[in-house]
Amino acid sequence: MQLIGSLASPYVRRTRLLLVDVDYEFRDLAIYDADKAELARHNPTLKIPTLVDGGTTLFDSRIIQRYLAERFGHSPLSWAEENQLTVIDGANDAFVALFLAERSGLDSSQDAMIYNRHRERIRACLDWLETAADGGAFDAWHYPTICLYCLVDWVAFRELHDLSGQPALAAVRERHRGQPGVAATDPRQAV
Ligand SMILES: N[C@@H](CCC(=O)N[C@@H](CS)C(=O)NCC(=O)O)C(=O)O
Q: Domain limits of the chain?
């Protein structure tokens, strides 16, 4: 089994944490620079992660999770968990878009519809996740918690958002710092 990704990506990290007890090969690509062509050969969406398992190639972290759950006999996600993932991904995708805008030399803090929309989405998603976290939805270390952890730790690493307004999300990060694989997949190793 080969996982194509990068050390910094929160979407790749969630898959790495899911594979913590599995022997696999990890390919760390510079997706915006030197390894752009190689990424395009593996995944036409030009995104990571991609999982290659024998003759099967899978493109998206959510699909990879479903594939791994089936392969290793884990129970499928509940509808409530699917919604949690959609909200986590809503915030994560918006943060990635703002991050790429900044890396493109654009001012993502300007009053423009596209940036306002991303910021509104981030606010709404983080509020929703804060309420869920406060109610204990992420107390246990399961896949949605893994994805949330990867999101909040990545925004801290990239200094994209200050979690002081979301104490329950900050508490989820504190609570799960010591989980298996978390230290080994720290995105700070990428710099
Ligand atoms: N829905 C995808 C999102 C993956 C994603 O956006 N990954 C980022 C890295 S964190 C990426 O590849 N970005 C490249 C780009 O947007 O050009 C998944 O869950 O795998």
A: 2-74, 79-176
pLDDT tens per residue across span 37-96 = 999 999 999 999 999 999 999 999 999 999 999 999 999 999 999 999 999 999 999 999
Is the pLDDT reported for residue 191 higher than 80?
no
62 CB within 6 A, ligand 1: yes
What is the spatial distance between Cα 81 and Cα 17, in angstroms, rounded to a whole number? 17
Q: In CATH, what number does 79-176 get?
A: 1.20.1050.10
Q: Does pTM top 0.85 for this prediction?
A: yes
> Does ligand 1 come within 6 angstroms of the Cβ of 15?
no
Dist. CA 46 → ligand 1 center (Å): 8
The answer to whether the peptide bond before residue 49 is cis (omega within 30 degrees of 0) is: yes
Distances (CA, A) of 146 to 43, 73, 101: 24, 18, 26
Which CATH code is given to the segment(s) 2-74? 3.40.30.10
Q: Indicate whether residue 48 lines ligand 1 (CB < 6 A).
A: yes
46 within ligand 1 shell (Cβ under 6 A): yes
